[in-house]
Amino acid sequence: MADPKLVWNQENIRDVAESVGIPNLSDETVKVLAQEVEYRVGQVIVEAMRFMHAGKRTILGTQDISQALKVLDVEPLYGYESTRPLRFGEASLGPGQPLFYIEDEEVDFEKLINAPLPKVPRDVSFTAHWLAVEGVQPSIPQNPTTAEARANELVPKGPGANPTLGALAGNDNVTFKPLVKHVLSRELILYFDKVRAAILDESQDPEIVILRKSSLKSVQSEVGLQQLVPYFVQFVSEKVTHSINNLFVLRQMMELTQSVTENKNLFIEPYIASLVPPILTCLLGRTFGAPGLDNLKEQYQLRDLAASLIGHISNKYSKSSGDLQSRLARTCLKYFLDPTRSLAEHYGAISGITLIGGPSAILTLILPTMKTYEYVLTKAQNERGANDESLRMLIGAIMKGIMTIAESPTQMMNGLNGNAAEGQLVEEYLGSTIGSRVVALGNHKLNKAILDSIDK
């Protein structure tokens, strides 16, 4: 079998060998090295063409070669990166010995001299901008970015470090300084520590209970607490995240959030986005408290408190945050329509929708889905029984939301109770489980509102 013809010039192998101090190479060695070089170069070209095709290009560039060398774990070339295509010239050193080189761009000095001068830079000037608004640094070009702040303002650890600002919210491992330094008085720091210690004390001693209620009442009515708002928000967020199995702590965090939101002297609109997640956690969480404990009543009380909070925030700050109400309603609806969620999660979702959107949300979001939702209720009845407490609570929450459609859920008199046909239509629209309970109310106004919503 004839030896394959090599494309790579074997004399090039000898030249390289002589340049590194190997003067005499046998023809067989040169041939083997040439075959190896040819194979490796072809391998690099194939990998580079893959990058070229992935980039939807038809011209192979130096960047493709560099990427191919990285993939093949070969040290990349240096000095051949260019934003424009390279032009190679050819010079002949003799018969069959071409030499390729990169052509330098020729510059016409006459054009360079006669070219117009660049524009004169503007004079140095000063402009004013907001470093912080209500303790929150706006994202504008004049202010440092988060990455710059983290790179330039590392807080030293050790005895000389000042962890007061970060430790206020219970964070013992302070890594970075805040973008805007908060100067807190000793009185505010002491106040925060006292409030935190009081609301986290689980003792049932009458004096401790009174102190706990007084602390929450103080946060609800005290003036001059604006600087502590971000620390309260961070404190609530961290405690809810790390105390999901402690119903007492979760309850206290929701009551603290309620006190902060009800304080008319505080401006908390910049912190709404940080307040909502811990509230949604307490509203839509799968389970709370230590496993194995019978705390169903406390869990539903926590969900009711979280639902009232989310409804209060949605109604109060919907004008300043345009899409806040729709995003909250969409999140609750997603949980309500997910059949894999627990009945307690469905309870929190329907309670949230009722208080976030009111009767209009029930008419447009809940009623059209009740016929399909009948599957969830029927499955729960078959598995748990009709007297299961979680199922009864869920049905009660759905009925409570539907009854908000009518101004008065009491039975109408004087022939205004409708007829059997009306009740049958309502039951067909809502499903037997919920529809039969709505019909049993005998509220003609409610039935009419439900049937009118079908045509809209």
Automatic annotation (TrEMBL):
Pfam families per record: TAF (PF02969), TAF6_C (PF07571)
Gene3D superfamilies xref list: Histone, subunit A, TAF6, C-terminal HEAT repeat domain
Subcellular location: Nucleus
Biological processes annotated in GO: chromatin organization; positive regulation of DNA-templated transcription initiation; positive regulation of transcription by RNA polymerase II; RNA polymerase II preinitiation complex assembly
GO MF annotation terms: chromatin binding; identical protein binding; protein heterodimerization activity; RNA polymerase II general transcription initiation factor activity; RNA polymerase II-specific DNA-binding transcription factor binding; transcription coactivator activity
GO CC annotation, single: cytosol
Keywords: Nucleus, Transcription, Transcription regulation
Superkingdom classification of source: Eukaryota
Residue ranges of every copy of the TATA box binding protein associated factor (TAF) histone-like fold domain listed in the record: 6-70
InterPro entries found in the cross-reference section: ARM-type_fold (IPR016024), Histone-fold (IPR009072), TAF6 (IPR037796), TAF6_C (IPR011442), TAF6_C_sf (IPR046344), TAF_TATA-bd_Histone-like_dom (IPR004823)
Xref: PANTHER family: TRANSCRIPTION INITIATION FACTOR TFIID SUBUNIT 6
Annotated family: Belongs to the TAF6 family.
Protein name: TBP-associated factor 6
